[in-house]
Design goal:
By secondary structure, the protein is mainly alpha-helical. The protein has helices at residues 3-33, 66-73. The chain has one domain (3-48, 56-73). The two termini are 32 Å apart.
């Protein structure tokens, strides 16, 4: 695996881990402070979102040709 690809995957994993930890802490705090509205609470990931890193590793191993897709759909 290429070093850049490995580095990006590690970065995305770390960002997701930090965001999930923060989200769990937020939900636990909301449950303690306001149990009635806790199931309906929203969480903003802010800088801990990995959405910007999605689909960055579009190399040949991830691409499918049009013919392959058409064969799979049949």
């Amino acid at each position: 695996m290429e070093p850049d690809k490995r580095r990006l995957r590690r970065l995305k994993r770390d960002i997701k881990k930090a965001g999930n930890k923060s989200r769990r802490q937020h939900l636990k705090r909301e449950l303690a402070e306001n149990p009635e509205d806790a199931p309906h609470t929203e969480y903003d990931f802010g800088g801990k979102s990995s959405a910007a890193l999605n689909a960055l590793d579009q190399d040949a191993t991830r691409r499918r040709t049009r013919e392959t897709r058409e064969q799979e759909e049949e």
